[in-house]
Amino acid sequence: MNGVEKTVLTSLPADRYKAKDVAELYHSRWEIEVGFRNLKSSLLDNALVLRSRKVDLLEQEVWGMLLAYNLIRREATRVVEKHKKAPSEMSFKFAFQFIATEMIVLGNTVSPGTIPKRLEHLRGNLEAVFIKKRPRPSRPGAVKMSKTRYPVNAYAAPLK
Fold this sequence. Notes:
This protein has helices spanning 19-43, 55-82, 92-107, 115-126. By secondary structure, the protein is mainly alpha-helical. The protein is built from 4 helices and no strands. The chain has a domain at 50-129. The chain starts with 18 loop residues before the first helix and ends in a 34-residue tail after the last helix.
């Protein structure tokens, strides 16, 4: 891809799947993982969020999160299209924070007739969250430390 050789390890049989197809599928899967990361770390702030104890209410929470995620993506997409940029050039985290703040202000709008003007204002200011240059790891294969919300007990006895 673009003159750069990449290696992808897979258990798929080479006689049935072309390397290019596997690489494209991996890229698509990576985009899905980025979406999940945006949901978990940006939108939900790494919090335990499914608090409901009933299935119907759990479904409602999940649908609410997905709706919020898609609304933020929709507004971000409108902005990147307007400025002829790639979607990857907009930070989801900063777009979310910006839009959430603007929604609070919009909620205090006295006249519903001013909402379209406020939305245009929001879209105009959203361009401030474009990423100038996405940082890359300094070396390939860098291992990220897992953030866990559970305490580690250093004095735990080994299992026998």
